Every structure is written in C-alpha cells, then in structure tokens.
C-alpha cells in the first residue's frame, strides 16, 4: 500500500506503532502521533483492541458509539469509522470485516499495546511476589504501573468508558497494592506512609490500603498511630456503608495490640527465629500476617500438592487465565466473589484445562496446599459430598480413624482444618450446587476453583468464567501444535477445513490432531473430506478414550426430558439464530414455554443466547446441532430439513451474546 495523501510518510521497518489505552486513547508511529480524530474512531479502535482478536458485532459497536439512540445512518458511519482506523494504522494492522462485525489483527512484531505490556508485567510481578522474591516483584510491578498515563480510555464515547474503565482501574489498583506489598517486604515501610495516606484520601473505602498503612506504621515504630489508623478506617466504613471492617482488618488490629511477630517483614522475622519447615510462605502478604498461625502439621504429612499437570499444549484463553490468576493472588481482603470461581461451558470446551493452567500459575500463593478433587459430576456415579469430605480430610492430614462418620461432622471438621490456612481447592466436574456447598472452606484465605457444565447459578458468592469456543486463530494454533507445523503448512486449505469442522471446540481439535498424527500416511485432505461430511463428522471425532459424541451423550442424559426435546427439534432449524416462536411451532407449545426451554438450554451451555431486536434468539454449536439431529432421528423418527445443515462456524460466530 503506497503513502496516503496528507498522511505521515510510509512506515519504515524500524518504526514501532504504539497503541495506547491506559490514558487518552491514542496511536503513535515512531515519534509521530497518528491523528485518530474525535471520540468515535477512538472508540472503534479501543473496542477492537479490548476484544483481543475476537469479532465485535455491529450491534455491540453501535451501542458503544451511540448508546440506546443510534442514528438511522449508523451502519454507514460504522463502516466509515472502521475504514478510517484501518487507513490510519497502516498495512501492518488488519481491521477486518468479519460478519456480524469487525476484528483487529496485530502483527507479532512492530506493534506495542500498552494494556498488554501492563498486564504481562503485572502478572510477572505477582508471580515473583508469590514466589518470595519481592525485589523482582517490586521492579516488575513498578514498571507495569509506569505504563499508565492517566485515566484509562480517555477520549472515547461514554458507553465504552462505562463498560470497561472500572475493570481496568481495578487491575491498576490491585497491581499498585501488590507493589506496596513488595516494598513492605523490602523494608521500605517509612517511605510508604505518605504515599498510602494520599491513596487513602483518594479511595477511603479500600480496606487493603488501610491494612498496608497500619502495617507500615507499625513497622516504623508507630504502634499507636497504626491503631488510630484502624479506628479511622472503622469510622469511615460505618459512616459511608454502615459496615464493620473486614475480618482481615480486624485480625490485623488484634495483631497490632499483641505485637504479633507475623507483622514483621520476612527479613525481620528471619533475624528473630529460624525459618519454618516446609514450603516458603507467600512474601509480602499483609493478609497472611493477619491470620493466626495454622495448627502445627506432623512432619510426616507434607502440605498436599495434588494438582494434575496442566496440558503442555495449552493454547488461547490468555485473558481468562489472567483474570482468574489475578483474583486468586489478590493480597487484599477478598470480596465474597473473589474466593469461589466457577469455570463453566459446554462439554469439551476446556474447562479443566483452564482451571489447571490457572491453579499451577498461582499455586505458590497457597503454601498450605493445593488439592484437586474429581467430583465425577458428568458420570453415572457422581462423588457423594460425604465421600468427598472424607477424601479432603485425609489429604490435609487427618488420620482415617479420626475422620467422623456423619456428613455434618465431616463438614465441620473440614472447616476447622482450613480455618487458619491458605489452601487452593480445585473441584473438577461438579454436577450441581449440592455437590460443592459442603466442601467450601469458610476462610477468605482459601480459594476454590470449580469446573462444571452447569453455571452453578444458585451457589452463593461465586464468580463465573464462561468459556466459549476458541477463535479461528486460536483453533488453528492449537491444531498446528497438535498435528505439526510441517503438515499444516503443506496443506493449508485442508488444515483450515479441519479446524472449521471442529467449531472451536478444544476437545474436537485435540481428537483431530491425534487422528492426523496416528495416520501420517494419509494426506490431510482425506481426513478433512471425511470430517466435513455431516453424516460422519461425529464418528470421525473419536480416538482412543476421547469422543465428542460420548461427551455430549453424557451431558444430554442429565437434561430434563422437555429440554432434550427442545434441543432435538431446534437442531432441525439450521445453523442460524432461531427465535422461540419458530421452535414453539415445531414443539406444539406457546412461545413463552419454548423460550423457557431454550433458556434452560442456554444456561446449560447447549445453546448460545443472542440479543435480537425482537427479543432473544438461540443458536446451537455446529457439533451440538449434528449430535441433536442424530437424537432427533433416533427418538422422533425423522429429521425435517428446514434450512441448510452445514455452515462455517467462523462465518456464523458473534460476540453479541445475551
């Protein structure tokens, strides 16, 4: 592409394009600013960058640009703004039209996005702090914070700022508090006091900063001032919110009153006493200092380290893992939704892989142990909660003959054993809320990661990460890792066909990669042709003990009969979103009843719920649709072919989910 009249000279290979979101939204090529224009092109650029390579639908972009009152000409204006961003950023950055919206693709080199740099440095700093290396942590976290240039998303339209700015600011504050923790561990408490006083004046309800100020004052020999800081925190919380300080802050006050050694930094504690046996405690955690010491553990029973290995070829899901790891390594007193996290999605979507990847990333923050327990919720014999409690008690060192027989007694014993510790619990494949409630520790020092095909929406105080299919780019990357670069590069069209037939489902991609590796004498095009035949797709997606059809059948059996029937008939309506009224006519029910059944399918992640102008609509994943068509033929006797049965998943995806 040649130079554009009136624009900057052509890009040279040494120039870096800087795309900045953490302050005013702006772009800069080398030392020259790129003139983005007013709020709307800045909003389009920022929204595309925040989507991380995913498609943003026209509907979503319209809402971010104009709110609830878009002009009649908004489609044409949206096209203009996207074209302008494409033109201004130059040939190295692709702003592509991918129906139903747009996406941005960045080259691997030559482009710097300040948000990505901040998050990568913040993650490295958090890991170093959890590993007991406060010097490295302080440096990385300080460099992460230096990336910020002011209030994030400056100059964009209000709807985008309202949707994203608070989340980004929370990431900044968590990183700031970790940097202060690292500085406290390095003995910089006196220098931190003025900074903390200023930060509290700006954000007086943030209890983490209050606890850090109390710790810094105590370590500076100002015990009375530290207690006064607690009284000020209590008065502010009571006046503003009508609440008492958190349990963590109250424990810190008790430690201040008694001069507990845990208030000292790691270096100071080491000078007073020999280091404790077992794995190192997490460095720099005021939260750890607040807690009474855990009961002494017998030397023959080390802390449990039960995590299975994470998949070595894990691909994609970077943002989901970063968000979970950030919440799980927070050093501050936790909100209720920071202690229990549910990872959910359709069968085969990679819930366990995400949970294990996250757990391994944060395990050093949980020195009292990491436990993985398979609850077998999708199988014929789910693990009974009483059995699960017995296994958990055994893993934390309770002798078998001391494990109570009654379920309620086991639950009380489990809560007692975890009350003073910092434990990470991964509960894999939970069937429902009843399977996990008795297993949850009550202390906010512990954390729980749960995977479940159900969203566990009745579980109190839980946050949720809903996994969707991998993007086409992520899918291609995973398949390439599994099948080998030489094969996918030699037959790129066949590789694309295989990836598209898998619909972004990690299980399907893993099976396809295994089958290709097991048949090196086959051309890839042969397997692509077999996989692309709707009548044999599911049969081809099976190898050894992995089968997409079997995984779907397990989950299908857990659906209520009316919901199963709605799924079967929905499958006859093709790949596009379907409104409840259409399904109602096939089912012989009213639209409201059909909507209830389809909503149940969406809650169980069998269908994708979409917002349409006329109300909700629902769409099936292509592999789910093929499975349900088979069940329709088996249980109803025929498959009405109302619409075409095969369409590219990449061309029908949308992020416009309800």
Describe the structure.
Pfam families: BTAD (PF03704). The protein has five domains: 17-114, Arc Repressor Mutant, subunit A; 116-142 and 161-290, Serine Threonine Protein Phosphatase 5, Tetratricopeptide repeat (Alpha Horseshoe), CATH 1.25.40.10; 318-466, 3-Layer(aba) Sandwich (Rossmann fold); 472-549; 557-652, Winged helix-like DNA-binding domain superfamily/Winged helix DNA-binding domain (Arc Repressor Mutant, subunit A, Orthogonal Bundle), CATH 1.10.10. Helix content is 50%, strand content 10%. It is built from 29 helices and 16 strands. α4 (114-130) packs antiparallel against α5 and α18 (472-483) packs parallel to α21. The longest helix is centred in the N-terminal third of the chain and has 28 residues, at 158-185. The chain is globular and about 80 Å long. Residues 1-14, 273-300, 332-337 and 639-658 have low confidence and may be disordered.
Kindly list the characteristics that best describe this protein.
single chain; about 650 residues; alpha/beta; Arc Repressor Mutant, subunit A; Serine Threonine Protein Phosphatase 5, Tetratricopeptide repeat; Rossmann fold; 5 domains; 29 helices; 16 strands; about 10% strand; globular; disordered N terminus
